[in-house]
Amino acid sequence: MADTNTKIKVLVVDDMESFRVRFKNALSSDKNIELIGLAKNGYEAIVLTALQKPHVIIMDVRMENDISGIEASKEIIKMLPDTKIIISSVIDDDEIIFKAYQTGVADYIIKKNAKTKDVLDAVYAAYNNQSPIRPEIAERLRKEFQKMRNYKDSVLMTLCILSKLTPVEVDILILLSEGYSREQISQTRHIAFSTTKTHINNILGKFNKESSKELIQMLTETNIIEMIKQTKSGQVSL
Known about the structure:
By secondary structure, this protein is an alpha/beta fold. It has helices spanning 17-28, 42-52, 68-79, 94-103, 116-127, 135-162, 167-177, 182-189, 193-207, 212-221, 224-232, and strands at 8-13, 33-39, 56-60, 84-89, 107-110. The chain has 2 domains: 8-132, Rossmann fold, CATH 3.40.50.2300; 141-232, Arc Repressor Mutant, subunit A, CATH 1.10.10. Helix content is 58%, strand content 12%. The longest helix is centred in the middle third of the chain and has 28 residues, at 135-162.
């Protein structure tokens, strides 16, 4: 609970007036909580935080853009690291939840389901450094960490395979990523079509892929093809 001599100063940030009013009414029902401001966007949140120094902020995640609340939270935590931020959202999105906790927020609530007691409990818990990671949130965080680990393992394995490609195979891989057909690659590199086909089959075999399209899609999604191009920039003779 809050110190009897100190009210918990709370800032509400939401671009929808209906939710600002809803949070205002919930917070105003508790005599130990002082609502110090209502902000409509991330910029206002940062300015009001600098001026008013709230103990707790209830921050909408989506305002100017899809993650503006998270971006504002990052700036606020850098500026005033002791400020506790509760991210609020109308949707239950695993990726946003993960990004929010990565930022260092104290809690995450689904505002359309949150009752007055839920809001007050979240504020008190954040203020007292007792915000729980609820079981359903913990499970989602675990899954996101697993996805990150799988992605990292995939990238490392891909980089290992790349290191085993010959310079010619790397050049052909770049041409494939730029949409060159096998015939065009043969003409560009002044080699026989059968030689080009052999090189491409060798590349696919090393990556254990069935088609060039599948391989290029994977390398593009992991941003590896762009890194290859940057590394080879000025060195590829076409």
